Amino acid sequence: MAAVLAQLDNVSRLFGRFPALRKISINFQAGRCYVLLGENGAGKSTLLRVLAGLLEPTMGTAHFFAGGKAEKITTQRARIGYMSHAPMLYDELSAVENLQYFAGLYRTCACLTPSAALEAVGLDPALTRPVGQFSQGMRQRTSLARVLLPQPSLLLLDEPFSNMDVASAARMVALLAGLRAGNRTVVLTTHQRSLAEPLADYFLTMEAGQLTAMTEAPAR
């Protein structure tokens, strides 16, 4: 049985009196891809932020990497890569300049070089054009390269196919499939189930903060 990288036990997250998550219990295994489905407001992004250690559960417990508790997540954060729906890039800088800046935030990690991270997502490190002039597909791949810098074991991706054309989305799917094959765990949200089908191991459906279904993907 694959190792469990993250485990949620009856996790709820309240914002005031509003329950964004309600009693979520699930294990995320190494080398698997989990696709979160649901309407806007279903709780998908909140769940990713709890897994990223950016939000603490209001109730319940979150465990990471063989039992490390949520209150110790700061010691594990480099092992978790989180790509938000917003690109989190500096538009006036080139891709390599962006990654040089972010690499400086991981001084205690054995990081990829900015050039290696960009090459891993199929971008040319020598490209000097500012990322503000990139296509949406190139911006998403640059964001993914930023996430890959500390070589995380758990990848959390919020709408990685957003606003992409068909060719760019297909390239992103291929990149993520390669990362999962390297025994990384991938958890992603999408409104485009068909795009995620080639790499999904499980589809998780959320409604009103609850995990209402977990379906194993057909064998490929």
Record the SSE blueprint:
Layout: E1 4-15, E2 18-29, E3 33-37, H1 44-51, E4 59-64, E5 68-69, E6 80-83, H2 95-103, H3 114-120, H4 136-148, E7 154-158, H5 166-181, E8 185-189, H6 193-196, E9 202-207, E10 210-216
Parallel strand pairs: 3-8, 3-9, 6-7, 7-8
Antiparallel strand pairs: 1-2, 1-4, 4-5, 9-10
Helix pairs in contact: 2-3, 3-4
Describe the protein's architecture and organization.
The protein is an alpha/beta fold. It has a domain at 1-55 and 187-220: Rossmann fold (3-Layer(aba) Sandwich), CATH 3.40.50. 26% of the residues lie in helices and 29% in strands. The chain is built from six helices and ten strands. The strands form two sheets. It has a six-stranded mixed beta sheet, with helices on both faces. A four-stranded antiparallel beta sheet has the order 2-1-4-5, with helices on one face. The longest helix has 16 residues, at 166-181. It is globular and about 45 Å long.
CATH class of the domain at 1-55 and 187-220: Alpha Beta
Number of helices: 6
Biggest pleated sheet: 6 strands, mixed
Question: Into which percentage range does the β-strand content fall?
Answer: 25-35%
Q: Helix/strand/pairing class, anyone?
A: alpha/beta
Helix content: 25-40%
What is the H/E order? Answer: EEEHEEEHHHEHEHEE
Return the average pLDDT rounded to an integer.
89
The number of E-state strands comes to 10
Low-confidence stretches: 68-73
Strand arrangement within the widest β-sheet reads 6-7-8-3-9-10
* Assigned CATH superfamily of the domain at 1-55 and 187-220: P-loop containing nucleotide triphosphate hydrolases
Rg to the nearest angstrom? 17 Å
- Kindly report how far apart the N and C termini lie: 19 Å
At the third CATH level, what is the topology name of the domain at 1-55 and 187-220?
Answer: Rossmann fold
Overall spatial form? globular
